[in-house]
Amino acid sequence: MLGSFLAGINWFIPFFSIPVFCVLSIIMMIFLVKSPKKKQEPLPFKDFIKK
If you average pLDDT over every residue of the chain, what do you get? Predict the structure, then answer.
């Protein structure tokens, strides 16, 4: 009975761990990935069309 209980837990571990890893990766992306600073202004639309 204990063996079947442990086997049942081991069977469901991947199904529960995937959402946990997804949430962890989203949290890490929010805090660790920095967006680059803007160095120049975008071209106005008229200048963009002329080029």
Answer: 90
Tokens for 47, please give them: 């200048």
Tokens encoding 5? 């209980």
**Structural domain of residue 10, as residue ranges?**
2-50
Total domains present in the chain: 1
> In this model, does residue 22 exceed pLDDT 90?
yes
Closest among 40, 23, 19, 39 to 31, alpha carbons compared? 23
Closest residue by Cα to residue 17 from 5, 29, 9, 27: 9
Q: Which two tokens stand for residue 45?
A: 């639309």
